[in-house]
Amino acid sequence: MAEVITVLSGKGGVGKSTFCANIGKALSKNKKVLLIDGDISFRSLDILLGLDREVVFDWSDVIFNRCTKEKALLSVSGNLCLLASPLSEPNSFGSADFLKLVSEYKDMYDFIFIDAPAGFNSATRIYAKAADEIIVIATPDSISLRAAYMVGENLLKEGAAENQIRLVLNKADFRHMKNGVQKNLDDAVDKTYLRLLGVIPADKLLAVAGDADSNLISGRTTEAFLRISERILGKDVKLYI
Asked: Is 22 helix (H, G, I), strand (E, B) or coil?
């Protein structure tokens, strides 16, 4: 039975979809992983994974019985699959429909990641409700950290438990943290009130990930994703490299 993890961010541009693509690759080395793109009309995972020309069906086709659940899947690699988002808002799409959709895939995978749109709205509420755990992505700047805090507060108001929500700090430059240009790790946690799951160092390759193939990240960043994947699996590894 899959563990369902919804990935949120308070603001756009923090690397949420790139995180989903790469954590899916890291976990799929030993686990079966499904990525669900939840960003209706603005999907990006198909592009990040080099599958944009292969999308025929999306998850709304499964909900409304226009195709089977298997036919809608796109294979990324042996253990990693993608379920693309619709390019327009499905008619009569509701919480029960999406929860049923996710449940239909649970027996097929070890992990299901839902890549939600930025902010907190009706769609992200649905995706949060479907989740066993929630990862909030932020960058170490005051605007992003405040947005992450607000997402956390909204999740708690919606009924999420504190131990369900964890923070991943992306685009961290330890030189900038040392000289005060970026918030340091303690400040980031203090500003969001979220438990830190991991830290991803700044990587120039991530800036052009939308034009890349399967190698989206470099060696040091790859190690960061591997460490986060180990922590998701419950292993005791260092938070950052």
From this structure: helix
Q: Would you list the domain boundaries of the chain?
A: 3-232
User: Closest Cα to residue 5, out of 100, 97, 111?
Assistant: 111
d(CA 159, CA 97): 20
Q: What is the pLDDT of residues 152-197, one digit of tens each?
A: 999 999 999 999 999 999 988 766 566 665 667 788 888 999 999 9
Task: Give the tokens for residue 52.
Answer: 């944009």
Domain 3-232 is found in CATH 3.40.50.300: yes
The answer to whether 135 touches 27, Cβ cutoff 8 Å, is no
Distance CA 214, CA 228 (A): 19
Type of residue found at 27: L
Separation CA 151–CA 121 (nearest Å): 10
